[in-house]
Amino acid sequence: MRILFTGGSGKAGRYVVADLVARGHRVLNLDLVPAGIPGAFDLTTDLTDAGQVFSAMSGITGFDELDAGMGDERSQALKFDAVIHFAAIARIQLRPDPECFRINTVSTYNVLEAAVKLGVPKIMFASSETTYGVCFASGEVRPQYIPVDEEHPTVPQDAYAMSKVCNEACGRSFHARSGAEIYALRLNNVIEPHEYAELAPRWRVDAACRRRNIFGYIDTRDLSDFVDRALAADGLGYQVFNVANGDSSVGMSSADVAATFYDDVPVTRAMGEFETFYAIDKAKEMLGFDPKSRWRDVS
């Protein structure tokens, strides 16, 4: 596939881009900083500028496409098969709140609009666990029920999560306008493989440190697998998916976590011994997503 990716220089994006290239896809990465991933192409792009986004999405990915005669802007060969939008201000406290909200919403709108107008059939964008209002809340906010699935209300307090909720509304509306396949990926706390050596010892003994992440995580390898499965899916329309690993990120059993941290929160179904509270049932059923337990064997 010919894939346009945004944010491929970021924490999650660089793993997904490398995996896409390894699977044989042609990937153009739009970011403010080049990723330099072997086999991928970089184009420095300000996604808050609609003209830059439209130009990048309707142009060549590399010089070899000129040799193949694809440089004509009227060429159907220039059409991307998929757009995957991960670029964003990654959390609060990186930019002032209005800038975080502006950049995240405007860039996502520009990417969605250009992709739809250029007839891209598959569009994915990174939403967030923060939409559920737990992660960046002032004080402690508990879920309305556990495990937290995609039907859980999304009423956050912070600018970052507000931007993600707005982006999901735009995704739904662009699907209604165009019929394009558009998926919002509510990513749980993204963890790189090398981070477990530092994180695992604390996760085992200090469950409280994972409360704001709903005691969950998503490994970059399993996130890459999710994206691959979502690219292969067809006919799903507009969908929101929780994306997490199947096990929790604490040494405490899920029953003990529920008793300790969620004692007054309704439990909607039986849970496995170490099952994530960030429910991925929908991704399992619709995409066959089956992420591995990644951290429990790390010494």
Automatic annotation (TrEMBL):
Transmembrane region(s): none
UniProt source species: Rubripirellula lacrimiformis
PANTHER family in the record: BIFUNCTIONAL POLYMYXIN RESISTANCE PROTEIN ARNA, NAD(P)-BINDING DOMAIN-CONTAINING PROTEIN
InterPro entries in UniProt: Epimerase_deHydtase (IPR001509), Lipid_A_modif_metabolic_enz (IPR050177), NAD(P)-bd_dom_sf (IPR036291)
Isomerase among keywords: yes
Name of the protein described by the UniProt record: UDP-glucose 4-epimerase
EC number: 5.1.3.2
Superkingdom of origin: Bacteria
Gene name of this polypeptide: galE_2
Keywords: Isomerase
Annotated NAD-dependent epimerase/dehydratase domain residues: 3-243
Entry-linked Pfam families: Epimerase
GO terms assigned for molecular function: UDP-glucose 4-epimerase activity
